[in-house]
Every structure is written in C-alpha cells, then in structure tokens.
Amino acid sequence: MRYSYEKTARPAALLPARLAAIDPVCLDILYQRGIRTPAEMEDFLFPSLMKQLRSHPPMLDMDKAVDILKRAVSDKLPVTIYHDYDVDGVTAGAAALEALRGLGVPVNHYCNDRITGGFGINAAGVDELMAKYPETKVLITVDNGIAGIEGVARAKELGLTVIVTDHHEPNGAVLPTADAVIDHKRLDEPEDQDRNCCGAGVAWKLFLELYVALGRDVEPVMALLDIVALGTIADVVPLTGDNRAIVQEGLKRLNSGARPFFRVCMDVLEKERVDAMTVAFRIAPMINAVSRMGNDASQLVGLFTKEDPAELRADIIALDDINEARKEETRREAVLAKELVGEAPRGAIVFHHDSLQEGIVGIVAGQLKEEFYLPVVMLAKDKDGNWKGSARSPDGFMLKDALDQCSEYLLSYGGHAKAAGLTVRAVDLEKFRKKFTQLALEAAGDTGFEPTTPIDAVLPASGYTEDLVRHLGILEPFGEGFPRPVFGVVAENILSTRFMGQEEQHVKYHDASGLDIIQWNKGEQARARKAPPKKFVGYPGLNVFRGTTTIQFVAE
User: Which residues of the chain have pLDDT under 70?
Assistant: First the structure.
C-alpha cells in the first residue's frame, strides 16, 4: 500500500453552532476530501433525507410504476416480487413485501437458486414462479431485471404486468419490455439524477412514492430504512448523496431495537451499538453465506418480520454457523488459487478450477484483487460444462466495459465497474482470458492499478485524545465513496515495546503521551528493528478495560 500526504489548510471562517462544536480535525478531514463550505459540511454531517431526495428528479417510469401499483392496491391484484439472493436482493425483497402487505395487497416473493437459476429474472424462473404462484397478476423485480430481456418477455407473454426496479448497468439503450423500467443507470436518465443507490434503495424509493400518491402515512416506509441500510452497506455502493442519508437514518432505526431481527443480532454478536463496519463485516456476510453455500435464500426474507426472540436467536446462530463453513471453504479456495496463480501474475488473473464452488468465487476474487491489485475473474464449472463465476476489479479498470468488449465469448454477464458475474463458453475460455488480460494490461499502463491512499491527517502522539476519537464518530457512516479516514501519527518518545498474542506475533508500543500504538502480526518485524519506528499510519480508537479508558492507535 502506498500512502501520500498533502495538507490543504482550511481557511478561517465563521462556523454555525453545530460545526463549531465539532473537533477541528474532523472539519479538516472534510475539507481535504472536497467538502469545503460550512453549508456543504452541514449537509454532509446532518443530512435531511427528504431534502436529499428532493434535490433530484424522480427516476424515469416511476409514475408508471406507481399507477400500476395503485391499481393493484385498489383491486387487490396478486403481486409477486422477483428478488436476488444476495443481501441487497433479500433486503429489497423484504422491504417490498412489507410495504405491499401494509397496503393490503396479496403478495408473494420468489428468487432463483444461485447455482441452478443464476442471477436475475429469466424465462425458466418466470415459469417456476408461475407454477408456484399461478394467481400472480403483477410481477416486480427488485435488484435485478435490467438485463433480463428474455425473462421479462416471458412474463409479458404470460399476460403479466411487469415492473422492473434495478440499479445495475443496462445493456446500452436496450431495455426489457416491461410496463415500467426503473433504474437510475438508464442512459436516458437526466444528468442530475442520483445514480448510486443499491437495489433495495431503488425499490424503497418506489414504495415511498406509492404511499405518498395514495395519501398514506409514510412512517411504515420510513421504518423499512433499517433493512434498506443493510442492503446499501452490503452492496458497497458509495455512501454519499441519497445513500448517506439512507444509511444514517437506517442505522438510527436499526440501533433503536424496533425490529426484532436486528435486536437479536446485536445480542448474539454482543454489540451495544451497530455501525456500518459491523453491518458490512458481521451481519451482511451471514446473510450472503446462505446462498453461497447452496441454501435457499428466499427463506431469509421472513427473518425481517419475525418477532419471536427465541426463534430468531436460533435462526441467527444457524446463519453464523453457515457463515463459518463459508469462511473455511473460502480459505481453501484462496489457498488453491494463490498456489496456482503464482507470486507475480501480470495484467489480470483469470482463474478456473473444477473444485471451485460457484457461491464462493466472488469472495476469493475480491481477496486476490486486494492482494495483487489486478482485475480478477474466478470461474467454477457449471452444470452445462461452461465456466461461471465472478469478477472483481481495482480502481482504474472498468469491469463492465471490459466484459462488453469480451461479450463474444460470454453466454451471459452483468454488473458494475468493480464487480460482475459472468458465464464463459468452455470452448472460448482461453480466448476470453487472452483478450481480458490484454485489456487489463492496456488499462494499467506503466503505473499499474495499485492505489495511492491519501492520509487525511497527521498528528503528534499527544494529539490523539479521547475527545477527538469520540468526535470522529460524527463522520460516520464509513464505506465506499467515503472510507474511514487514514491518520498518521508521529511518536517521538516511545517508552516501551510489548509483544502480545499466544505466539507474541503482535506488538504494542507505548508513547510518553499515553498513546498505545498496536500493530497486528508485526512482532517479527519489530524484533528485527534496532529502535521502534517513529511514524505510523492507521486509525485511533478507545480501549476500555476495568473502567479505565485509554487511546490506542491501530497501525498498518
């Protein structure tokens, strides 16, 4: 990891009371990141969700979808929700189900099996859905559908009214033949549209518009923001604009304990408060693990409305067990991939192996991308003998554009700039590998993809106080588009060095200022040094032990 630091001094300015009460270091960080006027800072730190939503126009076809759903409400037309199997899809499905039930609509939900059905609406899925719910009159896709041309066509052939809600990239200007297609990434959306919401966010906006159009109290839709925040964080969309306001409000509702699912989650995870990082690394993986390990993801939707604490506790512990099995399988596949890829791959990694599990390859692709800073495609053999899997990309390589250029070798594909799913024809695998790798080499140029991470602030050890650490919470939520700040510390007077862990693999430096600096798995390097280092990069936090609070800096 390369780091850079270039401080831009924040000019003196008269601050409103809410900003004047915040530690100046927090405001300096915002200024460094381009949020520079007091008004911009207030909007960022204290966003109004309604004000943010009104700052851009409704998405195209929103009015058409609302009209369709108003008829479904008045005529009690049976609706089926076609959702995806990942966290975004499950939360979008849960939110849609709860919103429609609140209006008295008879509603069911359906999702593909990850392994046999693949991603998104397709003709076989529509036929299976109709065999299961033959009374369906209106079909709504959430977190999928923009690329489901054949699936939507099949639904229309069967006489269904179809609403597509999605956030993925369309295949150019070609849209499915649905009665309404809501996707902020449509090429004909106006320039001032917010294009960053996940599938759950797009669906939530539709139901907010529906409740408003019906003259209903919108509180039941607002109450869904805890679920929508989970989907937003899990799908790694930028936490700016609408998303930041959604997640900030959603986390408040999540931590209120109003929804039994999250209340029990917090109890099982032994958390008094849940932040975006907890959602991303503890709660979301448990939900994703269900489909990754070949289980039925549709059962997850009901967890968000279940109220019995004992049942929920058993369910969440079971999810955690599935996730532990997923972690073990991920470790196995990552070791295999690293052994066969070698130490210095060039351009891109396109890895396939008969033993890989289709549900795990996306995680392994992400790990290899982080380790090598290269685009990665991980492929498992599907039931037809073709190669199906996931791709992940670092900054600087537009994954969806690259797959567009390789489409002649693909049976199907779809996704974003940084993440995608794809199926490669077995006979074209080597051709795909060659072209994809060449595209990556051209994009990398002489500098490669390894990012230079900016350091947000550099302080002496004495500058890290309990007050500062507590004030940093005002900058949350952290995530894609607004990562957790990177700090530098200059420790001129380290008094002691202590090794920790069963194998003394970790090291803690204690500075005269009282600051503890911890480096995980750096014990061996510390022993090899003649003197402790004076400069570190990381993030400060609080450690409470036996009633005593100390400041610790976890360094890289």
Answer: 1
* Residue 507 CB neighbours (<10 A): 24
Q: Please give the torsion angle defined by the CA atoms of residues 285, 291, 292 and 295, in that order, rounded to the nearest 10 degrees.
A: 120
For residues 82 and 104, state if they share a domain: yes
> Rounded to 5 degrees, what are φ and ψ at 391?
-130, 145
To the nearest 10°, the Cα dihedral for 333, 335, 341, 344? Answer: 140
Q: What are phi and psi of 268, to 5 degrees?
A: -65, -40
**Residue 484: predicted pLDDT:** 93
Number of compact structural domains in the chain: 3
**Residue 425 phi, psi dihedral angles, 5° rounding:** -60, 135
In a domain, 328, yes or no: no
Structure tokens at 138: 């209106």
Tokens of 490: 């200059």
Alpha-carbon span 394 to 186, nearest angstrom: 24
CA 110, 116, 119, 121 torsion-angle sign: negative
CB 127 within 8 A of CB 121: no
Residue 30: is it exposed, middle or buried by C-beta count within 10 angstroms (0-12/13-18/19+)? buried
Residues 221 and 228: beta-carbon distance below 8 Å: no
Provide the token pair at 435: 């072209």
Of residues 360, 192, 545, the one with CA closest to residue 368: 360
- Please state, rounded to an integer, the average pLDDT across all residues of the chain: 92
Report the pLDDT value the prediction gives residue 99, as an integer from 0 to 100: 98
Which residues lie closer than 8 Å to 40 by C-beta, 6 or more apart? 30
What letter would DSSP give residue 8?
-
Sheet of 516-519, strand order? 457-460, 487-490, 535-545, 548-555, 516-519, 506-511, 494-500
- Detail the DSSP E strand segments found in 430-491: 452-454, 457-460, 487-490
Q: In this predicted structure, what is the pLDDT of residue 1?
A: 67
At 187 the pLDDT is 93
509-524: pLDDT as tens digits: 999 999 999 999 888 8
pTM: 0.86
The CATH number covering residue 463 comes to 2.40.50.460
Give me the domain span that covers residue 350.
Answer: 342-444
| DSSP 8-state code for residue 455 | P
Angle at 211 between CA 206 and CA 214, to 5 degrees: 125
225 shares its domain with 307: yes
Give the span between the Cα atoms of 248 and 253, in whole angstroms. Answer: 9
User: Which amino acid would we find at residue 282?
Assistant: R
CA distance 212 to 131: 34
Has residue 359 been placed in a domain? yes
Nearest to 276 by CA among 319, 240, 230, 323: 230
The reported pLDDT for the residue numbered 296 is: 87
Strand pairing report for 79-83 and 107-111: parallel
Are 266 and 142 in the same domain? yes
